[in-house]
Design goal:
Blueprint (H helix, E strand, L loop, with lengths): L1 H11 L10 H33 L3 H12 L3 H15 L7 H25 L3 H9 L4 H31 L12 H10 L2 H28 L3 H4 L11 H6 L3
Helix pairs in contact: 1-9, 2-5, 2-7, 3-5, 4-5, 5-7, 6-7, 7-9, 8-9
């Protein structure tokens, strides 16, 4: 209890909320690398997952490759990328680039796997019915498969975001900032309050992200599914039905 009280006092100290080592600056550093990594991972994984899930081609290869990537520790990626990044950029090669690469590679597998699985789990009868109505493959994907798979896709992004936020603390090992800086400095200085404060800040950030994505995931569920499946994902809008005399 004493260490917890001391940690809370450390967090409440105004001195720790200002300056280059202040909590707001560390939050921006931690959040920025996490957001950028997840966005870039999404830009890579979403198109692949949508294509494999929609067509069924290359799905096994893509998912297995992603799962193999999950087995590689992020710390190992940091160490492997560090000498290359130092050669490419002396300014950012020590801290930003290794952290960014490691976090991006960490975020790709859950996004890709969930996107692929979400589309493949869509009821094939609905897909075939949409094609029977004359929809193009792009319309089937955009109006049927993605809306129905969206909760699963967002679940993959949610998992990736939480994992990246929790693991981005490793960036402090290669001199990056973020909340991991408090953990590493706490260990180096034998400062238990600083160390535990860093742990609590990371945990709090991850929990808030988890809750935010959970709310978003619920909000993005297809209206037809929220009505208990009474709506058709490829039903024509009411305005179009009335205009056609239906």
């Amino acid at each position: 209890m004493e260490i917890l009280a001391a940690t809370l006092a450390w967090l409440a100290d105004p001195a720790h909320w200002q300056g280059p080592d202040g909590i707001p600056i560390r939050f921006v550093e931690h959040g920025s690398i996490s957001v950028i990594a997840v966005v870039v991972a999404g830009a890579v994984a979403l198109p692949i997952g949508l294509w494999t899930g929609h067509t069924g081609r290359g799905s096994l290869l893509a998912v297995n490759t992603a799962n193999i990537g999950r087995a590689v520790p992020s710390y190992a990626v940091l160490v492997m990328v560090l000498p290359i990044s130092l050669q490419l950029s002396p300014s950012y090669g020590l801290d930003v680039i290794p952290t960014f690469v490691a976090m991006t590679l960490l975020a790709i597998p859950p996004i890709l796997v969930n996107t692929d699985a979400g589309l493949r789990e869509v009821d094939r009868d609905l897909v075939e019915a949409a094609r029977g109505m004359g929809m193009s493959e792009r319309q089937v994907l955009g109006r049927v498969e993605i809306p129905l798979a969206l909760p699963v896709i967002v679940g993959g992004i949610r998992t990736a975001a939480v994992q990246v936020i929790a693991t981005a603390t490793l960036g402090a090992v290669v001199a990056y900032g973020g909340f991991g800086r408090y953990v590493i400095d706490g260990i180096a200085r034998n400062d238990d309050e600083r160390l535990l404060a860093g742990v609590l800040l990371v945990a709090g950030f991850a929990i808030l992200t988890e809750l935010g994505f959970a709310a978003l995931q619920r909000a993005l569920v297809s209206p037809g599914l929220r009505r208990g499946g009474s709506g058709s994902p490829f039903q024509e809008p009411a305005e179009m039905t009335r205009a056609s005399g239906g």
